[in-house]
Structure formats: C-alpha cells, structure tokens
Amino acid sequence: MSALVSQLINLFAAVLLVLSFALLTQRRVLSLIQLFTLQGATLVMSTTVMAYFTAQPHLFYSAALTFVLKVVMMPWLLHRLIVRLNVRWDVETLINIPTTMLLGIVLVIFAFNLALPISELSVSIARGTLGIALACVLLSFLMMITRTKAIPQVIGFLAMENALFFAATSATYGMPMVVELGIALDVLVGMIILGVFMFQIREQFDSLDIRHLEKLKEE
Amino acid sequence: MEALLAVLGIPLAGGAVLGVIGHRDRASEVNVGFSFATFVAAAVLTAQIIADGPILVLQQQFFVDSLNVFLVTLTAFVAFTTALFARPYMRIERDHGKMTPPRMRLFHSMYQMFTFTMLLALLTNNMGMLWVAMEAATLTTVLLVGVYRTPASLEAAWKYFILCGVGIAQALFGTILLYLAAERVIGAEGNGLLWTNLDAVKTSLEPTVMALAFVFLLIGYGTKVGLAPLHNWLPDAHAEGPTPISAVLSGLLLNVALYAILRCKILTDGALGTRFAGDLMIGFGLLSVVLAAFFLSRQRDVKRMFAYSSIEHMGLITFAFGMGGQIAAFAGLLHMTVHSLIKSAIFFTVGHAAQKAGTQVMDNIRGLIRSNPTVGWGLMLGTLAILGMPPFGVFASEFLILTTAMRDFPWATPLLLLSLGVAFASVLGKVQPMVFGETTVKPLAHPPALIPVFTHLALALMFGLYIPPYLDNWYQQAARLIAGGT
Questions:
Q1: ipTM (interface pTM)
Q2: How far apart are CA B208 and CA B268, in angstroms?
C-alpha cells in the first residue's frame, strides 16, 4: 500500500518538475498561466493523496485551500490582469533556450545532491521528493532571473511558492494550519499588490518590460 | 497578557481606523495617538516582564523574554517618535503635491499595519508565524516605497518586492527544514515550530538538517537585514520612499530581521555544538561592513548614503553576534539599540533638509546651519554619533566589538578598522559642507518636528555615558540567552 502511495507521490513530483521546466521555456503569457494552473492542480492532487493515506485531516484543509487559491483565484486574477493590461497574446522573445535548459539540469542535479542526506532522515512516506521540491524552487528562481517582462516574473514568483508548498507537504506532513493560512494570506495580498504595481508601471513606462527598471544603479 | 494583547491590538485597530479616516486633515494626530498608545502598552509589558520574568501565553503562541521585550520597547518607541516626525513632514509633502488624500490614507494605515507586523514578528513563539509576519512587513512597506509613483520610486518598490520576496522564500524553505528536524523529535502534533519547544530539545535536533536550515534562514532573513551581497534593494528603497519609511526601515525592520536570525542561531548552535552558524554570520557581517564602507564614498544622494551606512552597521552587529560570547552579544544588542535611535534621528533631519533644498543630492544642499540651526546641528551631531565618536553610545559598542575581535579574531580587526576609517572620512566629508557654509535652502511651510531627533540623540548619549542598572541587567540577560552559556 505505502509503496503505491510513494509511487503516486513520486509521479506527482515528477510532473511538477516537468512543469517547472515547461514554465522556464514557455514564451506565451497565456500558456504560462495555464501551466501555472496545472502546477497548482498537481499540487492539490498530491496533497489529497497524502492526506488520504496518512489520515492527516489538516492536509485535506490545506488541499482545499490550495485548490481555491492556486487553481481558481490566482489564475483568475492573472487572466483578468492580462486582459486589462491587454497583453493576452504577448509572446516574449527568449534567447538561448537550450542554455537555460542545460543550466536547469545542472540546478536539478545540485538540488538532488543537497537534499540527499536529508531525504534519508525524513519519516514521511514521500521523503524522496524533497530533492525535487528544491529543484523546482531553484528552477523558478532561474525563471525569474531570465525573464524580462513583469508578468512572467510574477508567475515565476508564484511557482516558487508552489514548490515551497510541495516541499512542506512532502518532506513533513504539512505545516501547522495557522502558518499555512498566514502564508496563503501573504501570497494573495502580495499578488494583488503586484497587480496594482503593474498598472502603475505601465502608466509610467508605457510598457511592462522591466528592462526599463534599471535606472537606479551605482555610478 | 493584557499588555501583550494591547501591544498587538492597538496598531491593528489603528490600521483599520486609519484605513477609513486616514485622508482627513487630523489623521496625522490620530496616527501619533495610536503609536503613543502602543508605546505605553509596550512599556507596561516591559515592566511586567522585568518584574515577573518570561511569559508564554495563548496556547504557547506568544513568548516574551528579555531578548524580545527590549526590541518590542525599542520598536514601539521609534514608531512613536517617527509618527511625531511624520506629522509635519507628510503635510509638507502634501503641500508640495507629492501626496494626495488617498495616498495619505494609504500611508497612515500601512504605517500602523507595519508596526503591527513587526511587533507580531517579535512576540510570536511560532517560527512559521515569524515568517508570515516578516513577509507581511515587506508587503505593508512595498506600497509605501512606491507611493510617489515616480519612475524611480516604482522601480525601487518593484526591486524591493521581488528581491525581498525571493529572499524570504529561502527563509520559508529553511523553516520547512526546521520543522522537518523538529518533527523527528517533537512529533507531528503541530507544536514543532514553537520556539520554546525547539529550544527545549535543541541538542537532539538532527545536525545535518539544522545546518542546511540555518543556511537558508540566514540567506532569507539576511536579505531583509541587508547583508551583502543580498543588500541591493536596501539603498533604493530607502532613497525613493518617504523619509518616515526610511527611518522605520533602517531603525526597526532591519533589527527585527536580525532578531529572527538570532532566534535561529540559538537553535542551530544547540543542535550542532560547533561554530558553524557563528562563522557564517562573521563572514556575511564582515563582507557587509567592508563593501558598504567603500560604497559610502561614491554616493551623491544623501538618503542613499545613510542607507549604506545602515548596511555597514547591520554588518557590524551581525559580526558581533557571530563572534559569540557574552561580551560580543552585549555589544551587539547595545549597538542595535543605539543604531536604530541615531539612524532614525539622522533620517528625520535629512528628510527636512531635503525638503528645504528640494533635492536629495548632497551637492545641492548647503549651509543648513544658517537657515535652520536645529536641523543643521541635529544632522551634524547625528552623523558624529553614527560614525562612532565618543561620548555617544556607538563608540561604546564599537569599542567592545573591536576589543573582542582583537582577542578572538585578530585577523578581522584591521579590516574592521579600515572600513570604519573609510566610512568616517567619506560620510563626514560629505555632511560637513551640507551643514556649514553659504546657505542654499529655503524655510519650511510647517515647523519641523525636531523633538524626536534630540530625544533620540540624548538617549544615544546616555547609552554612551551611563547605562542604568536595570537596563544593564536586561542586556546581560539577553546576551546570556544569545551566547547560550558559552
């Protein structure tokens, strides 16, 4: 039984990793949001499986919370944002996709090595996935560095939060409920603030290209 | 218990009330009123802790001991004096057309919410809530940094949000690892993130996990402290936001982030039993001191320069705590106190000076002492104090840090002395013509609030000359807690 659960969780972890790579190289804004929604859905499924087989009731709540927040609200907010900003069909020019991919693979290997000694210590059934979670965090990090538009950068930020959440549910049996609620609130408020910002940035710079935001530098 | 609830409840209520009436003319006074009430509550709480010892209340979710109670008082005090300063300052900004009524409402409401998040971060016993509060502190200030909606301020706010957001995400990963280590010892009942529980079992926490957790926590919270090389957001956020926000960012937020690192260090030291955490802090601290000192000489914007000075001082404090031992911890705590008093006082005077001159570029601010002697003298004395001139408190704490470094880490001493020397030369060389010489500045429409400046400087002077026995006792207790009996 637990072997099956382990396999399932590992499968979800692998899906998350593939989605992280897809986010890294996707150029269309609309597809980015869809990928992000898929990532959220995978997270919900893996949390539900964990909750069901470990009989941890609070994991059900956190799965429900994730569903509402990351599969429904965030994508909805992002959709509204791109419609109102009229960047729905934007295609970003990314240079060096192969290099980015290779760099991503290096990061994954690094993450696995870093997490190896810790995975052996974890008591959770899904302990092998800590390395994958860390890899997803680092890939989102890479995504934020390589993107020059505001919305993909924000999606990278949210994907990083997803990966962290996955780390919390896979390595431990989820954070205490009060902490999870607090984190969810922070992310939601942060998302709204970023949305407000994008309008202000576009008003000031006539573009959402954050390469304009490089005036403040040391002389 | 009631005092604790008041400390948290008053600023929260203030945030809600000012969210409704914050655009009115009298809102500044209401803001001051709420901040003053918070300060009174904090003072009562402190008196109780001094009398009865540490308390652990509300299902162990809140914990107050000698280490955080002193920061609570300091935070409430500086938040109160900054509110006093903000009253005329923001009115002048409004007259200059930089603030509109909705922006004033945002400012007042977020100011109270920011105070609330910092106090929550200090008082909570839950390492997860600590993270939530630190992130919330970023969120409340990010809109304030960009409140003028100029290209530069928007850029600063975006940078602040993204860099601190990414940084603090690392701290969340660290917190998860901490919980992973705790679960093995405490179990999965949800109490594994309570600091007091962790502290009780710290010697049996898994060393490998704790070491990795500390690295992530240090990088995460270190971004908020402004430790090099994670400091990039700090000068921009300080220079482009309204000055009261620069004052509270420098004087309070950096302290609170460092407090988070200290709590984690106590646990890590217990689990590892080695100097690992301390050595990391020494490295980051020293790098910040050296890097900031050399950047100081290249600044042209006055608020940017003092932001770099904050990085330098936070680096010095991190270095002090990294050295470990009771004397160094004592010096670090003292330095935290005097730095936040003096640096906020400097930002108060700098804010008015920049308003008078209509610019933050130092070359265009001249002869403050002619047009307004109190602003000029305040800036001069504040600068001398922050540069470590006796008899101000910074001298005492820097002296303690340097002598401890000489004894325990002699190789670091020349680097520290060199950096302090470079900082002294570059800051004084730039502030001196701003204060003396022919004047270029205009008088202000509203009389500036300078009582906070001189109150802060007087307190810093007191810390340099004489620390009252109960304060001394209090610092000793906190230092013992940090040093962990070594």
A1: 0.91
A2: 10
